[in-house]
User: What shape does this take?
Amino acid sequence: TAGEEIVLARLENGSYFGEQALLDGKHKRRNASVRAVTDTHLIKISHRDLYQILESNKELKYYLQTIGRN
Assistant: This one.
């Protein structure tokens, strides 16, 4: 129902979100919102910066592309 809140996940300290939107290379807009229930520190990483990080760290790239999807 439009406007209905559905909790998909509760993230813990050190968790991350939004990486799949950057990894798929399509830069599509997502259809979900995130709301913090406690004080939160966020880091915004551009697609270009993430790409540079992943190209220099193949283990992290593998993790995000495979294990991180679960």
Helices lie at 19-23, 47-56, 58-65. The mean pLDDT is 81. The longest helix spans residues 47-56. The two ends are 26 Å apart (CA to CA).
